[in-house]
Amino acid sequence: MRRLRALGFALLMAGGAVSTGGPAVASPGTVEPAKTPGTDPVKPPMRELPTPYTIGYSGGARPPPTDRTPDFAYGAYQRGQYVTAFREATKRIEADRKDAAAMTLLGELYNQGLGIKPDPVKAADWYRLAAAQGEPGAMSSLGLMSLDGRGVPKDPKAGRRWLEQAAEHGSPTAAYNFALLLLGSGSEADLARAATMFRKAADGEIGPAQHDLGVLYLQGRGVPQDATKAAELFRRAADNGDLAGEVEFAILLFNGKGLPKDEGRAARYFLHAAARGNAIAQNRVARLYATGRGVPKNPVEAAAWNLTAAGQGLSDAWLDQALAGLTADERTRAERLAGDRSEAR
Q1: What is the pLDDT of residues 234-264, one digit of tens each?
Q2: What is the reported pTM?
Q3: Residue 3 φ then ψ, to 5°
Q4: Domains of the chain in sequence order
Q5: What are the start-end ranges of the H helices in 118-226?
């Protein structure tokens, strides 16, 4: 799921978003956390909330089970047949004026402009009708639209209320976005409540929520400090494809904090995150290859990953100095590897 970039809220915690930089490792034998306190970028909420018509949806009204009448609207949407989905959803609403799932689908089609001209006002109208039937996906979408002022007047208080209601009705992604709003207040009470909301979202297998709750456990903010719980949450976040969680788990695994130390396994997580384009992981992999920790020592690979990270703005004076003795041929090979990796992203 992609995140909204136009509107953000300060996460106010270390490790909030690892893809934008971070300090170099202090020494070859240790790996520091991905961020240092006070350097967190704005962390925005998620735009594309799950709805009853999203694969893997885990909250609120769903399409009828397969042992009942097939949901042609849902099936058409999943196949990319949006005009058919629009027609079938409309027919369903004509037959049942309280069909919240069909209303949410029409809101989604208008919101994203799928098969029809985008119309955020009509999208909000359909979401509002579905929300009145208790549909949490529609409430979540109304919350983000209110925060944006898209299709409805901009109203942060209303946006917060919609997200809170959606979270109470079981939407894990709404719980995640509501937690981000709570963190932005700076209140200790809101911090504890944010942890509760992150936990709801984490239980719904929302990777970013698992990462963020892990950071709170690592720091002891809003929850008791517990590196073991943090490590488990980071691992789950990594399993759900969250890059920040993957890097944080690799760091704890490498250092043996919260779980048994395993440099080889940590290296595999770092390599996976580096291949996905994470600059911090690329820097860590470069250091591992430079020192032979968790992987065989390989100065060419070290230089290549160092160049790849530097290309994203993450420089490392220690690595530059450690790899200064490369031959011209080795440097050429490293530059070629770095170029290939940058093109592959």
Answers
A1: 999 999 999 999 999 999 999 999 999 999 9
A2: 0.78
A3: -110, 150
A4: 72-170 (1.25.40.10), 262-345 (no CATH)
A5: 120-132, 136-148, 156-168, 172-184, 188-203, 207-219
